[in-house]
Amino acid sequence: MMKQLLLVAFCSIALYGNEAAGSQESSGGLQIQVDYARFRGGDDKNMFVEVYYSIPQRTMHYQADSAGMRAEVVFTLIVLRADSLVYGTRWLVPHTVADSSEMNSGKNLVGLTSLTLPEGEYVLKVIGQDRHESSRVDSVVQRLSITHLPRDRMILSDIELSSKIRQGSESSPFYKNTLEVVPNVQGVYGEGQIAYMYVEAYNLDRGSPDGSYQVRTVVFDAVGREVISRERPRKRVGESSVLVDNIAVSQLRTGTYTLVVALLDTGGQLVASSGKKFFVYNQALGIDSTLLAASGVLGGYEYSGMDEAALDEEFSYARYASTGPERDQFEKLEGHDAKAKFLTEFWARRGLGVREEYLARISHSNGAFRALGRQGFRTDRGRVYTIYGPPDDNERHPSEAEARPYEIWSYNSIQGGVIFVFVQRSSGGDYDLVHSTHRNELHDENWERFAGVR
User: Fold this and answer.
1) Residue 398 lies in a domain
2) Residue 105 counted as domain residue
């Protein structure tokens, strides 16, 4: 049953840091996050696609106006098929705050747009551009596959992860099927939060003769262990139905999880399933220690729902953990199975918990340190965070008289104690590593000149 249930749809996951900003714009540049969910359209030939977007409030550029401080981001959605444009739209996302103290609240602006597409393979591109400063641009590109939904058996839509689901009003932009469903675009939940999920079930008249079925909600951890499981009996009322559930993430340790919703017939046989990745950051519980101590070979569950491009992306994330010969070997591989086998053995050599912790660091880096269109893990701060983990102390200097913003990260348990110094050399640019006391890193005792510190 576990292998059948792990039909996983992967999404981009990011964590945002709490960096302070000393001016009206983010030092890390504009950041957007994008996700989507596919639902049945009005006929058998088309599917209805909701595209969700999110902007961290702190990354927007604000200007004073009569209402306070106003930011505006222009979004462009482009859908391509075989390099030909099949759909395009543009809209404005404004946001006003009373004063500058509200600009770094850590909140995200969330919205959605929708479209209908026939069967085919597409590329979906979303571009965000700061209207007040056109050079501040971010974009996300995702593949989008649309297939005809079968009519001969029960089936599920994609899962939409949500931060809130409640009875709604048609005036809400997130209203559907009598509910207000506010998307969690990043798929990230902190301690004390509740992970809500929304999914639609179709062709329920193709189920058991008495109209009954079971809905099973399962959460797997990163190594395929079932950590939450519950079943609810349902009676068919119509041909389709909305399924809503929630998970209290306070019981889950920090890490990546897979949420699977499945439909079972009266005999307990799997009829349909839909899956989604999400990430939990729970500082109180930390990372599951059994992951760090586990040994043996991965079961391969992590890769069963990933296409070849997703496998390539995972290995690109592993650049700091891989050796030159391993990178050369992976470059020569062709096909999903060969790459999945390589990655399974690659992480098994390092221990199961290493993959979990490493990818959690990548997720955080991509959200917290993205800059100037570069993925966060490719920046200097992202590289250091990925390799060495979170610092024991982060001394931030975001805005000081006649000095450039800089940060000093301290690690007390590495080589008897080391520091890393990062400086934002140009306004709106990234933080560069200019000095470290780590024996294998850049060393420059006169680093103060880069920051203008006296």
Assistant:
1) yes
2) yes
Residue 313 shares a structural domain with residue 406: no
What tokens appear for 325 in the block? 């010969």
> In 3-state terms, what secondary structure has residue 380?
helix
Q: What is the pTM of this model?
A: 0.62
User: What is the structure's pLDDT at 288?
Assistant: 63
In the predicted model, is pLDDT for residue 4 greater than 70?
no
Report helix angle 336-348 to 324-332, nearest 10.
160
Distances (CA, A) of 2 to 130, 297, 404, 415: 45, 17, 53, 43
Classify strands 406-411 and 226-235 as parallel, antiparallel or unpaired: unpaired
- Which two three-digit tokens encode residue 7? 């039909």
The boundaries of the domain holding residue 261 are 2-286
Same domain, 124 and 90: yes
**100 and 243 co-located in one domain:** yes
pLDDT tens digit sequence for 396-448: 888 666 788 999 999 998 999 999 999 998 877 889 999 999 998 999 999 99
User: How many domains in the chain?
Assistant: 3
Q: Are 3 and 35 in contact (CB under 8 A)?
A: no
> Residue 292 falls within a domain, yes or no?
no
Residue pair 305/38 in contact by the 8 Å Cβ criterion: no
Do strands 84-97 and 68-81 pair parallel, antiparallel, or not at all (unpaired)? antiparallel
Encode pLDDT of 345-388 as tens digits.
888 887 757 888 888 899 888 888 887 778 899 999 999 999 99
3-class SS letters over the chain: CHHHHCCCCCCCCCCCCCCCCCCCCCCCCCCCEEEEEEEECCCCCEEEEEEEEEEEHHHCCCEEECCEEEEEEEEEEEEEECCEEEEEEEEEEEEEECCHHHCCCCCEEEEEEEEEEECEEEEEEEEEEECCCCCCEEEEEEEEEECCCCCCCCEECCCEEEEEEEECCCCCCCEECCEEEEECCCCEEECCCEEEEEEEEECHHHCCCCCEEEEEEEEECCCCCEEEEEEEEEECCCCCEEEEEEEEHHHCCEEEEEEEEEEECCCCCEEEEEEEEEEEECCCCCECHHHHHCCCCCCCHHHCCCCHHHHHHHHHHHHHCCCHHHHHHHHHCCCHHHHHHHHHHHHHCCCHHHHHHHHHHHHHHHHHCCECCECHHHCHHHHHHHHHCCCCEEEEECCECCECCEEEEEECCCCCCEEEEEEECCCCCCEEEEEECCCCCCCCCCCHHHHCCC
Structural domain includes residue 297 = no
